[in-house]
């Protein structure tokens, strides 16, 4: 596990602390012909060797550098101006997966996936987390449709899909608070949302919108709390 932590630390330092914005722009402009790309890979390999502090593990540094280079080149050629955010996330996920795979191979880590996937706690956690994201958003949107249709659309006053992602994040936070036994944090989150959201709505005197958001918030929080209680009943 110590080796894995060091590999992740090397990645964070190399990708975020030792990679100037000018290097990123040059890589995007020149792609595989950019000298900064190969300097970036050299830094990653050197960081791995430095943190591992064992020359016999040089193969790990080599494979980390190669995998990192392949992923970076894939992103440079595949991303478009409108898809930079998605490719940034995908890029970091692929880097993490490659680090885990290389670590697993060289440290001979074995995982009994059959036992893991038969564990009710693991399956319950995966199922509930997925349920609290897009499925719950669709369910709540359907339940509230008769009220949302009566509220005038104001596209210029909010970010695109911001409400959906706020709802997903708040449900995941509430679920995490419930399963870790921090009920007081749920109250704090609800109070914080009330201060930021309902204060503006009260000033705008949009009663329908205020009531709609209040119903949606209570349903969202209630769903997450119930999901947390169900998960606790499965694992206890």
Description:
There is one protein chain. The chain is an all-alpha fold. It has two domains: 2-107, no CATH class; 115-235, no CATH class. The chain is 80% helix and 0% strand. The chain is built from twelve helices and no strands. It has helices at 2-17, 21-30, 35-52, 58-78, 84-107, 113-117, 120-131, 134-143, 145-148, 162-179, 183-204, 207-235. The protein is globular, with a radius of gyration of 23 Å. It starts with a helix and ends with a helix. The mean pLDDT is 87.
Q: How many H/I helical runs? A: 12
- What's the N-to-C terminus distance? 28 Å
Q: In terms of structural class, how would the helical and strand content be classed?
A: mainly alpha
What is the number of E strands? 0
| Biggest sheet statistics | none
User: How much is the average pLDDT?
Assistant: 87
Overall geometry: globular
Q: How many whole angstroms does the radius of gyration measure?
A: 23 Å
* Helix percentage range: over 70%
Spans of at least 5 consecutive residues whose pLDDT stays below 50 are none
Element order: H for helix, E for strand = HHHHHHHHHHHH
The oligomeric status of these chains comes to single chain
* Percent of sequence in beta strands: under 5%
Number of domains: 2
């Amino acid at each position: 596990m110590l080796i894995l932590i060091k590999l992740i630390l090397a990645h964070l330092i190399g990708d975020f602390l030792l990679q100037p914005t000018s290097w990123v722009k040059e890589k995007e402009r020149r792609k595989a012909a950019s000298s900064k790309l190969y300097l970036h890979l050299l830094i990653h390999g050197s960081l791995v060797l430095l943190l591992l502090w064992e020359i016999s593990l040089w193969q790990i540094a080599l494979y980390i550098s190669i995998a990192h280079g392949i992923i970076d080149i894939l992103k440079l050629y595949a991303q478009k101006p409108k898809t930079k955010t998605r490719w940034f996330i995908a890029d970091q996920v692929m880097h993490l997966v490659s680090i885990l795979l290389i670590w697993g191979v060289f440290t001979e880590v074995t995982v009994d996936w059959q036992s893991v996937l038969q564990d009710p706690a693991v399956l319950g956690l995966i199922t509930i987390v997925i349920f609290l994201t897009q499925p719950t958003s669709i369910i709540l949107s359907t339940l509230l449709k008769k009220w949302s249709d009566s509220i005038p659309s104001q596209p210029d006053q909010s970010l695109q899909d911001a409400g959906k992602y706020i709802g997903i994040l708040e449900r995941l936070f509430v679920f995490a608070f419930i399963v870790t036994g921090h009920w007081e944090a749920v109250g704090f989150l609800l109070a914080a949302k009330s201060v930021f959201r309902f204060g503006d709505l009260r000033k705008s005197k949009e009663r329908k919108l205020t009531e709609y958001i209040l119903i949606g918030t209570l349903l969202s929080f209630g769903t997450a709390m119930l999901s947390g209680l169900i998960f606790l009943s499965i694992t206890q």
